[in-house]
Amino acid sequence: MTSQERAFHEFAQFATKLKGDEKSEAQTFLFHLLAAFGHDANTLQEGCTFEYRVRFANDRTKFADLVWPGRCLIEMKSRGVELSKHYQETIDYSAPPVLYPACAMRQTMNNNLRCS
Fold first, then answer.
1. Tens digits of per-residue pLDDT, 39-56?
2. Which residues contact 69 (CB under 8 A, 6 or more apart)?
């Protein structure tokens, strides 16, 4: 097993121990996910923002769980939530003023990860 495979395996083991509540566990989950990709688990990468404010024309503001402009947008839902019902939300977050990400991840807290 390579070190990268081991890191993903350890992340998967960690994630299975979570309750699956987006509000209380999202940032912990994301720090561990970034660490599995080789980033410092104690420091948010330069340019990354948790709970990135996305303002819409109708004066509504919503929050993307993590935005790393030009690289990644992550929108999470609690365990058991049907991701297909929230697909448009991810698309809305991907539009300007958020810089177009190379990858937009939609995931539930049970590690159902979809990348578009």
1. 887 888 888 999 999 888
2. 47, 98, 99, 101
